[in-house]
Specification:
Blueprint lengths: L21 H19 L12 H26 L8 H26 L5 H10 L15 H8 L2 H5 L1
Helix pairs in contact: 2-3
Length: 158
């Protein structure tokens, strides 16, 4: 409800919800036809484009899982920073951990453009409603495990 919904001259018989109007239903059909054309033409779907709610929820879930994986994935590597065998390798590993954190933040921001709050995604991760890649549950018992799990060219060169 908005301030213009009440007051002098307001039509009390008008629908209070836009979804109750025929205009809305027609506009929704046009938006979905536009979405279907974009998909059929292999075009880019932008966050503010009209899209089916199930499609938006799937995008949010996939982006969130990737973001969670980036953040969780930096933890095993971060545990080894103080135990890295040389100062050079400590610096490389710190850069790798920072990269992972940055990737996670970019992905959370991308999910926010689809209309979900970052704190909601983190709450779902903490409650077990959303997941991350299970590969990060395997222990990194040796330095070699850290370098292998990092998977980046910087880790392989060290």
């Amino acid at each position: 409800m908005y301030g213009n919904d009440f007051g002098e001259g307001a039509d009390q018989q008008a629908p209070l919800n836009a979804t109750e109007t025929e205009d809305y239903q027609q506009a929704l059909a046009e938006h979905m036809a536009y979405f279907d054309r974009l998909v059929a033409d292999d075009q880019r779907i932008e966050p503010r484009d009209a899209m089916p709610e199930a499609y938006r929820k799937t995008l949010i879930r996939q982006i969130a899982q990737h973001a969670h994986s980036e953040i969780i994935g930096m933890q095993p590597e971060g545990n080894w920073i103080s135990r890295a065998p040389s100062l050079r390798r400590k610096a490389i590993l710190m850069a790798k951990v920072q990269d992972e954190a940055g990737h996670g933040l970019y992905l959370y921001s991308a999910a926010e453009t689809l209309g979900v709050d970052r704190s909601e995604l983190l709450d779902k991760l903490h409650s077990g409603q959303q997941k991350y890649s299970s590969i990060f549950n395997y222990p990194t018992l040796t330095w070699a495990d850290v370098a292998r799990s990092a998977g980046s060219s910087t880790a392989r060169r060290s």
